[in-house]
Structure formats: C-alpha cells, structure tokens
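Dear colleague,

Thank you for sharing your sequence with our group. We've completed the structure prediction you requested, and as agreed, I am returning the results in plain text so they can be pasted directly into your records. Please verify that the sequence below matches your submission; if there's any discrepancy, let me know and we will rerun it promptly.
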Amino acid sequence: MSLIGLDALVLGGGIAGLAAARALALRGAKVRLLEQAAALEEVGAGIQVSPNAGRVIEALGLAPEFAEVSDESRGVRMREAAGGREVAFVPYAGRGRFANVHRADLLAVLERGARDAGVEIRLGCRVDEVRPGGAVVLESGEALEAGLVVGADGLHSVARRAILGPQEPAFTHQLAWRALVEAEAPLPPEAQLFLAPGRHLVAYPLRGGRLVNIVACEEQAEWAEEGWQVAGDPAGFRAAFAGFGGPVPGWLDRVEKVRRWGLFRHGVAARWHRERLVIMGDAAHPTLPYLAQGAAMGLEDAWVLAAELAGAESLEAGLAAFQAARAARCRRIVDAATANARNYHLPKGPKRWVAHRALGAASRFAPGVLPGKFDWLWGEDVTAG
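Please find the predicted structure tokens below.
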C-alpha cells in the first residue's frame, strides 16, 4: 500500500516515536506526533548505540548528524568491582560502529529529522484514552482521529492497554541508578563494567569524554517506583556501591543528582495491533537494561513498521507483517538481557570463580569468541530488505 497521504498519529516523543514519525513521513505519510512533556529533553542519561541501531539511523538519513553528537566505543572492559581487577575485554573491532551518546543529543537529532520530514510535533499533550478504531482522547478532552495510531508511549502505554487490557508487571527485585558526572581525566573510549555479587555498575564517556555516564543496578527486596525520572538520594547511591574500587569512588563522590527506578518485567506483548492501532518500542517489548538494546529495538521497530506498511496490500496486513517480523527477535533480546542480569550478579563461590576465569581465558586466547556470541544481535540489518 502507498503511505502517501496516510494520516498517522504517533504517541510519544521518545527515540522510538520520533524515529517512527520520520520513517513514516519519508514514505509519504502525513504525521502528527503527540508528546506529554513540555519539551523534548532528558536529563542526565546516556545510551549505547550498537551497529544494528546505527544502521537504522543511517537509513533514516541522519548518520552525519548522529556522528557529530556521539563518541565511538571500542569495547567493554569487565572488572571485578572490589579492586578493579580486569576480568575480560570484549572488543568491538570489525563489527561496525558502536557509539555512546547523550540521550538528549540523540533526541535532538531525531526531532530535527522528524520536523524536516514534515512531522507536526505537539508538546504538552497527555493522552487519556486510545481506541483501536483510530481515536485518541487527550486529558484536556480534545478528541483526535487518524488512519493509523502508533503507540510509542513507553512503559506505561495507554495504547498497549487499549489492545491488551490492564496488566500488572512483576517487580524483579532489582533497582537501577543513573547519574552523570564531569570527568576529571580523559576516559578510554570504552564501557567499563564493574561486577559484584548482587550488583554491577557500568560507566562510559560522553560528549568527547567531558562527561561520565553511570548506570548501576542492585538486587533489592524493597519495592521501588518504576520510571526513569524518579529522583534518588546521592548519599544512598554512594552507600549502595561503597565497596567498589578503581575509579568508581571518585565518580560517586562527584554525583550531585541521581535517578533511581525499580525494574519490572512486563513481558513481550502477545498482540501488537488492533484495527488501526499498533504498539512499538517499550510499549510492545520493554526490556531490562542489561544488554543496552532498549533504544535499538525502538529504532528497528520504526524502520520495519514503515517498510512493512509500504510493502503490504492493506493496513491490516502491514501491521500483521510488522509483528511477525519483530516479535521473535524482540523476545530473544529481552530473554538475553534477563540472562545477563543473572550473569552480572553471580554470588560468591565456585560458579562465579569459574565463570570469570573462563571469560578471562577467552579474552586472552580467543578475543573474537566473546563478541561473536552477539553477532546475531549486532549484525542484524533491518534496513537491508
């Protein structure tokens, strides 16, 4: 079907929503995007962009702009948390461009790209109800209709509820912290992963090495609120990771603001579309942050949704093809991220000792083995078809 003139309404101005808006607009759709925030911005957050996501950014025609705001990464250095001893290094060489970027910078690139493609962006629009027939009701009472409604409205998706009904996520008893600090000295262009029983911490440079992005996760019996913008206590953050060595204490000492959120397991949606409504990104397949693929899956979704609709005989067929093309891969990614949570947090004992020695041996004697385990993930190119 031709997307020329299709009236599409995208809910959510995050990475997935902006990418979907541009992808649809480039194929001729008339796109409006609704975002509940008053401005498209995110405070103190970095993301890692693997080659599978970078290929979508390139296909969207935004590679030069993205290169200007991102820093290339050469790999992941895994360390024992207590003393900082290196366990293994996972090199990225030969597997495409891996990049670190401040989320606000990537959002700015995508926003400009969407507007340049003719997308109308409306801010401060909170959605109260979504109906499968293409109707959306705002909190203000305003009613909108569209030929296609794309629910890219995140973890607490109103669009997902319209398709599947109310669902209760399960608390994983894991808690994540996110902070951004100034770098006192240049950092190597890589991610550093510090491993400890029941917790881990990842850090990598942003904006030319001027900033250090920190994401730390711990097992926690106490329930914690879900959501990326929940304010945390810097003193509590420092106390939770006080036993970490190497450069970590210096980073934690400089933390002035930190975000804290509980990790919940929602499950990949059993159904992604209904009539003229479709969900994507975190609304369809939220994942734990242990594989750095949340944004990547949203970008892949955006491209595939537009491509499948453009190649289908009808809207219904295109939406069905979109789910068929994406569901198994997203489920595999979500499962792999869940497995990483267990692997990162191994308790003290023989199993942990053996696992770390095996990682070290593979890193030294067969450096291609560790990154090769994720060729199925990073090597994917959803734009090739």
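Summary note from our side: Residues 70 and 101 are 5 Å apart (CA to CA).

Kind regards,
the structure core
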